[in-house]
Amino acid sequence: MPAHRPVNLALIGAGRIGSFHAESVARRLVDADLVAVADPAPGAAGRLAASLDAPKAYTSVSELLANPEVDGVIIATPARFHTSVVVEAARAGKAVFCEKPMALTLEEADEAIAATKSAGVPLQVGFNRRWDQAFYEGRAAIDAGKVGSVQLLRSLTRDPGPYRGNPEKTPLWTIFYETLIHDFDTLLWLNPTAKPVEVTAIADALVRPDFAGNGFHDTAVVTIRFDNGSIAVAEANFCAMYGYDIRGEVFGSGGMVMMGDVRRSSMTLYDKNGVSNDTWRRDTDHFVNGYTAQLASFVDAIRTGTVTGPTGEDARNALAIALACITSVTERRAIPLSSL
Amino acid sequence: MPAHRPVNLALIGAGRIGSFHAESVARRLVDADLVAVADPAPGAAGRLAASLDAPKAYTSVSELLANPEVDGVIIATPARFHTSVVVEAARAGKAVFCEKPMALTLEEADEAIAATKSAGVPLQVGFNRRWDQAFYEGRAAIDAGKVGSVQLLRSLTRDPGPYRGNPEKTPLWTIFYETLIHDFDTLLWLNPTAKPVEVTAIADALVRPDFAGNGFHDTAVVTIRFDNGSIAVAEANFCAMYGYDIRGEVFGSGGMVMMGDVRRSSMTLYDKNGVSNDTWRRDTDHFVNGYTAQLASFVDAIRTGTVTGPTGEDARNALAIALACITSVTERRAIPLSSL
Amino acid sequence: MPAHRPVNLALIGAGRIGSFHAESVARRLVDADLVAVADPAPGAAGRLAASLDAPKAYTSVSELLANPEVDGVIIATPARFHTSVVVEAARAGKAVFCEKPMALTLEEADEAIAATKSAGVPLQVGFNRRWDQAFYEGRAAIDAGKVGSVQLLRSLTRDPGPYRGNPEKTPLWTIFYETLIHDFDTLLWLNPTAKPVEVTAIADALVRPDFAGNGFHDTAVVTIRFDNGSIAVAEANFCAMYGYDIRGEVFGSGGMVMMGDVRRSSMTLYDKNGVSNDTWRRDTDHFVNGYTAQLASFVDAIRTGTVTGPTGEDARNALAIALACITSVTERRAIPLSSL
Amino acid sequence: MPAHRPVNLALIGAGRIGSFHAESVARRLVDADLVAVADPAPGAAGRLAASLDAPKAYTSVSELLANPEVDGVIIATPARFHTSVVVEAARAGKAVFCEKPMALTLEEADEAIAATKSAGVPLQVGFNRRWDQAFYEGRAAIDAGKVGSVQLLRSLTRDPGPYRGNPEKTPLWTIFYETLIHDFDTLLWLNPTAKPVEVTAIADALVRPDFAGNGFHDTAVVTIRFDNGSIAVAEANFCAMYGYDIRGEVFGSGGMVMMGDVRRSSMTLYDKNGVSNDTWRRDTDHFVNGYTAQLASFVDAIRTGTVTGPTGEDARNALAIALACITSVTERRAIPLSSL
User: Where would I find the Gfo/Idh/MocA-like oxidoreductase N-terminal domain in this sequence (chains A, B, C, D) (predicted)?
Assistant: First the structure.
């Protein structure tokens, strides 16, 4: 594509995070334009497109993909549709940015990867934490040898409370497929020279114990052993009353890096109750710069043909751990990753 | 102007901060375009305009102001030219964003205010700290009564070291006109119900003591008394070896707010030397979001006709304190502000 | 015993921590006297006693226990002797403070508990973290309902580096018996209404991989499930290059408490390398106040007959988890605690 | 005196801080005994002595000083009596620890110094911050050259609120004589190679504005210029609703040290209101270790004959600044210190 016109991006799936990505393209990325939105819900695409001055709105993904002006798509549909849309978009010759999880099975993952390879289009996946200032500084410190050989890792996701989800409508294993998948990518990315070899997971319904019998899980702890001996713990919970809490910790033979702070800014109040800080309450507030940088990276990938962010293979690797977790919870045992 | 086209902005003065503002307009503001750059240095405007895809470059301010496409100008010339350019821009009907200090005398300040009022154009001044997340949260806490009656305030600016300025080329009183003017605005803004009544300043050349005899100052401490009894201290130094350190503190009958942290992110390294964080080394890194928000506010002012950021009057008020400091240092006494 | 004379304490085992406890008694506890020291190594007891003005030194424990002036003993022998010395001391009618682990088997633990009960003497165990200011404030917050129902817990011990231990002389399973036993007590104590039901442990030799084949472990991660659904992670490593790092975290339906900071004080240095703090390098520096308070509590237990600190039963509960860890590592599976 | 018996200390003045010092001697210092208490208020000395098992109580200072068992005295009378008691104690051959301010005039200070010199007894003054862990680490960093040449300093004292003092009974200039005298000593001690040359002070009644006309001051800001060009700001307020806030900051050519944190421990609560820490509410809680170390230093001074803590000369130097502050407030001008 010409270097001197903006990249034309289209959104597929106008839900919460999709709408936010569309807004990032339209309002926060200067060298990209939002040219279309597709969503099957009547009116949804049109309303979002109108609010962001995007010229086209569709209820059909295929019609959007047939639009020759679209250089790349941002896929933010429900997760179960991700792979098929990736494949269709690739076949239409569009660059693909896909929200996590890119796929729900390894076969799907392979299919998505193959389709984009075959079409020669970039495929980038929505592991946005890699662009958070603290996390990429942490990775840089690891690369610079400041923690030495990695021995212990931790990554956690605590979604902000109060919890407003509906356990009945939450797909089974959401906590692994949608939440902890972030932590799995983070842990793999922060332990760059190692491969995971064994996974053990515990999951429960502690936020909503009334749904404990339905297969609903809102709390999980996962341990991952790597081939260099290092051990990681990932942890998630759907209801942190104090805010959106994302943290990482990597400890090694030379030291440790810690990343993440739920405090919203350095503004600190001292009053009769003590010392306090307000907190981040939404991912889209906390990570606004990282979300923008993630899409800027996708724009670069379109311009250069090279994906520097998380790839389809990265998505597959994180998915393999999520799948092992599901088996581990079901069979109550440690799962070797070679068995996948 | 039409709501649905970007605002057309032009830069006057392509130095360090001007170039950064131009980049903010071109790269970080979506609903504004950089349409022109003027700088008298041969080639300077052209190079900057080319790098940011701005269509026009001028060596003459008057020619830029004659360009009917320009809705508003960003004035980032050397300070001694600010007022005359504000006046000329206002007469040309352009909205005006002027870097601090807007003027070097109260007469100039009055002239700039009168010219923009008379022309009916918005006038906003570059006190960017008001848009820093921590500082505006601090002001909000004060407005919400969380510190009670304000009693003690502190604001400081420590420019990052090593110091690379040339004391021989630094205009006299730069520490008050250009550096502490930020702190004076901050202190006035954080003490919204009070008026300053007396100023005492101490200034010295401690970073470059070899220039102490030339009137050069690189270190200053200022105390300001307000009509509600509150007392503020402003402090500046040109060489903080550890980074770009901007902090504020407001203490009152109910508590305190503190704002500002030189740490660059939550990424914390623990190693054999202890616990450490990297720091902000440049204003344009530390305050990138605030600088963008400041210009977004100017764009809003152009669209709505209402300036919600710092006005010409705010610039005059901060200047009055800077001028009192100069007299205080010269005459070695406290200066009542009514005497100005 | 009379309220108005100091309690007479004797030390059994003049190693590193025993010597420190003796010093605490002699120098930091005002209402207790160090009256005797026993150690089988020739001269060891005598040297320590002399340096602390303790009147008696023995190479025989039995002789020390026969001293009628001794009200209570502090047992700091190698762990494998703990139980037999507890029993002998109890039979001699002495109050017993025993370093962790109080026993290496549940049978031993029962024996120690029975002997002290039968003799009617207080038995307190050396889980010193309960007296650390941050940890007891954390427990108080939990008791006050500030975290709601406990859901996720973490406790970690990282011994300061560089690691100077001799893997060949380190008893098998030291990481569970001696190190993580602290974390197990901490987790049980911070989750006061729950009982542990299942334990899974991973252990490895990452600090000294050259000893990985000998059964030596220097790194471990343990997950514990409780009967209220809460899940705890305990983690240990023998070589934190940055200092002595002890932390706890308890997350629940209402919020979270975090405890522990390796920074030595609020003294913060800002220099060309960034922002930094020195760290605690030794347990006896970091926890000096807690160690003293622990022994003051033992003195109170002697005076009042009531142990308010960790009891023999607490020692048994923590030991049960350590034993389950050993089985878990050996058999590579989750261990139900009812099976013990 | 013999090295192997405890030092015998006596308290003169059984008020709040005196009683606390007595308790430190009786309960927290092992190699010192509290042997006597004197206080003119009927029963006061007796009650305190009884509660701490001190054998003697007096209403007469002279009688206490005639007790040959007393090695040293801790003077904690109202400030106006300090000098005369120091002189009388010195003449009685007792080592002297005197609370701040040691004197209210320079003549008194000289008299106290001369009396103790003439008697050959140690004289130490109660500037307890020097023993706070953060502050002495700060001074050590300065001595090690880590801040380079000192340029800017800050020290502040904010007493905990709510304010319960009686402005009518508060001696004039208490804020300088009793409160800021700590900060003056701290600033002199943290700037060890410099001498103060000029002082400017502002004081007001902001906590109790209803007493503003009576000469009562509860808020003050002081600037001090030193002969090396460095500039210090000292600040005090009688009512910090958030706790007992003592901080220091020293900035120089190489960096900065900051000392002091009102947070009580690392225990941090995260809940629906954000992130919070409890605070220190009393000097005797916050600085308990420093207060004990201060008296241990006095005991050492008695044993060795050498005072390593703040001396009578240090007390005189801090007083000289307090006196300059009083003149500065009265005459509303900067006061050269050579004029004292």
Answer: 8-127
Q: Place B213 in a pLDDT band, splitting at 50, 70 and 90.
A: confident
Same domain, yes or no: B25 and B152: no
ipTM: 0.96
Interface test with B, best of A142, A154, A266, A286 (most B CBs within 10 A): A266
Give me C82's structure tokens.
């703990």
B208 in any annotated domain: yes
A277/D274 touch (CB, cutoff 8 Å), yes or no: yes
* CA separation for the pair C249, C41 (Å, rounded): 41
Q: Mean of the per-residue pLDDT values for chain C?
A: 96
Contact call for B274 and C242, based on CB within 8 A? yes
DSSP A133-188: HHHHHHHHHHHTTTT-SEEEEEEEEEEESSP---TTTSPTTHIIIIIIHHHHHHHH
Which of A4, A141, A270 lies at the smallest CB-CB distance from B269?
A141
C227-236 pLDDT, tens digit each? 999 999 999 9
- A336 vs A330: CA distance, rounded Å: 14
* Residues 6 or more apart in contact with residue C99 via CB below 8 angstroms: C13, C17, C18, C74, C75, C76, C77, C79, C82, C125, C126
CATH number, residue A104: 3.40.50.720
Going by pLDDT thresholds of 50, 70 and 90, the confidence category of residue A176 is: very high
- D183: enclosing H helix or E strand: helix D181-190
Task: Count residue pairs from A and D with Cβ separation < 8 A.
Answer: 53
pLDDT tens for each residue of B284-329: 999 999 999 999 999 999 999 999 999 999 999 999 999 999 999 9
Residue B127 buriedness (CB in 10 A; 0-12 / 13-18 / 19+): buried
B183 close to B155: Cβ distance less than 8 angstroms: yes
Alpha-helical (H) ranges within D66-165 are: 82-91, 106-119, 133-143
- How far apart are alpha carbons C334 and A329 in whole angstroms? 12
Query: CB distance A263–D275 less than 8 Å?
Result: yes
A192 and A335 both lie in a single domain = yes
Residues of chain A with Cβ-Cβ distance to D275 below 8 Å are 242, 262-263, 276-277, 279
Claim to verify: residue D260 and residue D206 sit in the same structural domain: yes
Are D221 and D239 in contact, with CB atoms under 8 Å apart?
Answer: no
Structural domain boundaries, residue A200:
130-286+319-339
pTM for the full predicted model: 0.96
Question: What does the pLDDT look like over A57-69, one tens digit per residue?
Answer: 999 999 999 999 9
